[in-house]
Specification:
718 residues, alpha/beta, 15 helices, eight-stranded parallel beta barrel, 20% helix
Length: 718
């Protein structure tokens, strides 16, 4: 024990300590003092350390314990107070136990965190460079971040969750800093912050685009690992969580002594006022403490075996996430922490839903992924969490981790099958009609069997992980040298096509084709059944110059570069979102029947597929041929589901003509499917959209589509 800590314990004599309560866990301010509660089955003794601005601390022993929860109440401790814990207990790496009272530990339930670790060797429980089995007794407090007591009171006014139904939802995935860091109308002191999200210019852009839900990349407290710091890089994306209740302090412009909580709440309130939901990308599968040689910052030093999934040799972790560890999903204390965190963000922070990173790990009670695991049982019965949007990234890096389509009925899923099929189509590879039919109509082959509907499919072409939309049509290969891994990191099979020239070019034909391809992807996304997701900046062609794994690039490379005078692709994206919003035939709540709908008084099927010749495709062709050109008929007079008040939904009908080949193709409009068709979108045109005075066509008429283009024709319902 260091001299500093001896002095701290002597100073504790003047602190008044009451027994307090075992619930709730964490630090809870009640207006006159703060209750502290922490779980540890491994601890012999736990000290609460109140940290002072001069670098000293006051340590008090927490003597009360109920069911391994140590608790106390300290009168006079108010919001802004920094604190941590020191856990006394066994140090035995061979049993997977790493208690070390020299290490100041974060509260797993901290509502705010101040500072960031500086990666001094004292942050590690073992003796770095000497032996991982020898305990390091150097005090880590001077180099460690600290938990903060927060004020739970906030004036939400008349804030109400928008509760936008899935069939009316358009997701927009964004990074807090990346979206706002270069916005010309946001002041420099606010850029990159929660407050910037609430800026009228940012909210105005989202609203004009037609976004209904802002899906934020991780905002839980995280930090950069020692390897990246040593390379002069950062954990930009934020998937290295250490605090599941605390907003990341680096995105706070108001301060990090609890002000980040108020700033985040203010941003949510402003977005809700504009009718925009807030969805959080959450990482409950692992923590930032990494593998067995990682630092001791929180869970490892509190009760390693209760929080982490240990290997058969308990010196090591089972790692199904690629991050060095995995949380123990059969531990009641881990499950309690995750559910408490979800409820906290839903009730206290007013968020509208969650996207679960590497969600397959959450289903691993033992080895296999199990959709009946305890976590899903808890979510299903929870009166708060079960009512918000729940979205799975349905895979992890462990054996059997690819689980698209296997999540329970309450859940929607990022549909990677959709992404791959649509990329293959417009890359010109050709896809089977069956594959394309499934993806454009909500992936019934994946979601229908267990009672889910098209809205279980979150459709995306690009996201934070991989190429941007601009780079998808500009690069064949990844260009990740800046990441420091010899261009070996990131996906090597991107299903991308550079349109004839790798990277930057001044060839007008290549540039025109790239612009057309971006319009094709945006149009296809908005025409597909399911729920569309856009990645921030794709609406005006953001580039990362071929870097498809910018997880460590907190720089101009990753930040959205806002155009000064608008952008043609932005106008086209707004047009396509508006077309989807105005026409329920593109956002059905139920799957197509592939036949006439009873009660529709229409002899035509609700959907039909045609060859370019105008002849209907036969079922035996669906799996036996590869197609690059076809026509889809959507019957707006044959929508089977009723409206919100039970009324019949009637919409216009549409023909969607796809030519993903490298040559012009002549299409024949199907006969007996209505007359008076009008072209409303033509991706071959630079502006994409057409006015009401656009070309008209009749059944049986021939139209020629240039290579890599899409035509949308509309027929008003009689």
């Amino acid at each position: 024990m260091t001299a500093l800590r001896k002095a701290c314990r002597k100073g504790a004599r003047g602190v008044q300590v009451w027994p307090g309560e075992a619930y709730p866990l964490g630090a809870t301010y009640d207006g006159t003092g703060t209750n502290f509660a922490i779980f540890s089955e491994a601890a012999y003794r736990v000290e609460l350390c109140l940290l002072h601005d001069d670098g000293s601390e006051t340590a008090v022993e927490i003597r009360e314990a109920d069911a391994f929860v140590r608790h106390c109440y300290v009168p006079g401790v108010s919001p802004g107070q920094r604190y941590g814990f020191r856990v006394h207990g066994p140090w035995d790496p061979f049993r997977g136990v790493y208690c070390n009272p020299a290490k100041l530990l974060l509260d797993p339930y901290a509502k705010a965190v101040s500072g960031t670790p500086d990666w001094h060797p004292s942050l590690f429980g073992h003796q770095v460079g000497l032996s991982r089995y020898r305990r390091d007794d150097t005090d880590s407090a001077p180099h460690m971040m600290a938990s903060v007591v927060v004020n739970p009171y906030f004036d939400w006014g008349d804030d109400r969750l928008p509760r936008t139904q899935y069939h009316r939802t358009v997701f927009y995935e964004a990074h807090v800093k990346g979206l706002t860091m270069r916005h010309p109308e946001v002041s420099k002191e606010l850029r990159g912050s929660y407050a910037a999200l609430a800026h009228p210019a940012v909210i105005g852009h989202l609203a004009e685009l037609g976004v209904t839900a802002l899906e934020l990349m991780p905002v839980h407290q995280s930090f950069s690992d020692v390897r990246l710091v040593g390379m002069g890089l950062k954990d930009y994306w934020g998937y290295n969580t250490i605090g599941f209740f605390a907003p990341h302090n680096a995105y706070a412009s108001w301060g990090d002594r609890g002000q980040q909580v108020l700033e985040f709440k203010s941003a949510v309130r402003a977005l809700h006022q504009a009718g925009i939901e807030v969805i959080l990308d959450v990482v409950y599968n692992h923590t930032a403490e990494g593998g067995h040689l990682g630092p001791t910052l929180c869970f490892r030093g509190i009760d390693n075996a209760s929080y982490y999934r240990l290997a058969d040799d308990p010196r090591y972790y089972v790692d199904t996430t690629g991050a060095g560890n995995a949380l123990l999903m059969r531990s009641p204390h881990v499950l309690q922490m995750i559910m408490d965190s979800l409820r906290y963000w839903a009730t206290e922070m007013h968020v509208d839903g969650f996207r679960f990173n590497l969600a397959a790990t959450l289903a691993r009670q033992f080895h296999e992924v199990d959709r009946l695991s305890s976590f899903f049982d808890l979510v299903q019965q929870d009166p708060v969490v079960s009512r918000v949007k729940l979205i799975a990234e349905p895979w992890d890096v462990g054996e059997g981790g690819y689980q698209v389509g296997n999540f329970p009925p309450l859940w929607a899923e990022w549909n990677r099958e959709y992404r791959d099929t649509v990329r293959d189509l417009w890359q010109g590879k050709g896809v089977t009609p069956a594959a394309l039919i499934d993806r454009l109509t909500g992936s019934a082959d994946i979601y229908q069997a267990d009672g889910r509907r098209p809205l279980a499919s979150i459709n995306f072409v690009t996201c934070h992980d991989g190429f941007t939309l601009h780079d998808l049509v500009s690069y064949d290969e990844r260009h990740n040298a800046a990441n420091g891994d010899g261009n070996q990191d990131g996906e090597s099979r991107n299903r991308s096509w550079n349109c004839g020239d790798e990277g930057d070019t001044d060839d007008p034909d290549v540039l025109a084709l790239r612009a057309r391809q971006m319009r094709n992807f945006i149009a296809t996304l908005m025409l597909s059944q399911g729920v569309p997701l856009l990645s921030h900046g794709d609406e005006f062609g953001r580039t990362q110059h071929g870097n498809n794994n910018a997880h460590c690039q907190d720089s101009e490379l990753s930040w959205v570069q806002w155009p000064e005078d608008g952008h043609p692709l932005l106008d086209f994206t707004r047009l396509m979102v508006r077309l989807r919003r105005d026409h329920p035939v593109f956002r059905r709540r139920r799957f197509f029947h592939g036949r006439p709908v009873q009660g529709a008084h229409d002899e035509l099927s609700d959907i039909m597929w045609f060859r370019p010749t105008g002849e209907e495709m036969k079922h035996h062709e669906w799996d036996s041929v590869q197609v690059q050109a076809l026509t889809v008929f959507l019957n707006g007079n044959a929508i089977s589901e009723p409206g919100a008040r039970g009324e019949r939904i009637i919409d216009d009908s549409f023909l969607l003509m796809f030519n993903a080949s490298s040559e012009p193709v002549q299409f024949v409009l199907p006969v007996n499917h209505g007359r008076r068709w009008q072209v409303v979108v033509d991706t071959a045109r630079a502006e994409g959209g057409l006015s009401a005075r656009g070309p008209k066509a009749e059944g049986g008429e021939r139209l020629t589509l240039i290579d890599h283009s899409l035509l949308i024709l509309q027929r008003p319902t009689a």
